[in-house]
UniProtKB/TrEMBL annotation:
This is Adenylyl-sulfate kinase. The lineage of its organism: Bacteria, Pseudomonadati, Pseudomonadota, Betaproteobacteria, Neisseriales. It comes from Pseudogulbenkiania ferrooxidans EGD-HP2. Catalyzes the synthesis of activated sulfate. It comes from the Bacteria. The active site is at 115 (phosphoserine intermediate). Keywords: ATP-binding, Kinase, Nucleotide-binding, Phosphoprotein, Transferase.
Length: 218
């Protein structure tokens, strides 16, 4: 095997290519602008449930939308990563890069990853681009998430069978300036999805399309 190196910065001697189809052409095709709705919150907060319901509502309404779920990414593109801070950062970097590619292709992306650290969410915002990134805090309190314990992971974390478990033995930093905060102990799934659907309609409307198409030439 040849020499393999992992590069952190912009690679030397590698040049970007581009075709004739611009983002604005793809937006015309889909009839809406693209964006990334980044759902962050504890395990059991409701991220996946909300993400898939929002996806169904958007697709049912004629939008092209897709979910990038942390659990699923960790079965494929991120299967070599664990839950140390370093691995989570790489997990989220890849998720954001994929979201960006999908946004460039015209899709609305709903990303549901715990993404516990502010610095990592800022990295995701930088990768996707400020103008088409909306951070949404699924703010369900730890006690409620732990009470649900849908996958039995909190019990395992408390008994020491899982290390670095978010909220138990690893940190979760709440967003300070989320576009929206949704506490699923107070709001139904439908109420959460309706609020997000409204936000997506606003951000991906034809007016937003004009604005965004000036900014992102690909
Ligand atoms: N140690 C530890 N901490 C947190 N979560 C854990 C851990 N081990 C496994 N799991 C399961 O992995 C899911 C979280 O993956 P993410 O990619 O969203 O995590 S992160 O954004 O990189 O922090 C998470 O999914 P959700 O419950 O849907 O959030 C868990 O099912
Ligand atoms: N308003 C709500 N929004 C989302 N999930 C809710 C809500 N109320 C109760 N739940 C329940 O909470 C659990 C959340 O699990 P999940 O969506 O897998 O969370 P996460 O992806 O954040 O780990 C599900 O069993 C879901 O039915």
């Amino acid at each position: 095997m040849g020499e393999v190196s992992i590069q952190a910065g912009v690679p030397a001697n590698v040049f970007r290519t581009g075709g004739r189809i611009r983002l604005v052409d793809r937006q015309r095709l889909f009839g809406h602008a693209s964006m990334t709705i980044w759902l962050t919150g504890l395990s059991g907060a409701g991220k996946s449930t909300i993400a898939y319901d929002l996806e169904a509502r958007l697709v049912g309404g004629g939008f092209s939308a897709v979910v990038l779920d942390g659990d699923n990414l960790r079965h494929g593109i991120n299967r070599n990563l664990g839950f140390t801070e370093e691995d989570r950062r790489e997990n989220l970097r890849r998720a954001a890069e994929v979201a960006r590619l999908m946004n460039d292709a015209g899709l609305i992306v709903i990303c549901s990853c715990i993404s516990p650290l502010r610095s990592d969410r800022e990295m995701a915002r930088d990768i996707v681009g400020e103008r088409r990134f909306a951070e949404v805090y699924i703010s369900t309190p730890l006690a409620v998430c732990e009470g649900r314990d849908c996958k039995g992971l909190y019990a395992k974390a408390r008994s020491g069978q899982i290390a670095h478990f978010t909220g138990v033995s690893a940190p979760y930093e709440a967003p300070e300036q989320a576009a929206l905060a949704l506490d699923t102990s107070a709001l139904s799934v439908d109420e959460c999805v309706s609020q997000l659907f409204g936000m997506a309609l606003h951000c991906c409307s034809p007016a937003a399309m004009e604005e965004v198409s000036h900014e992102y030439h690909i």
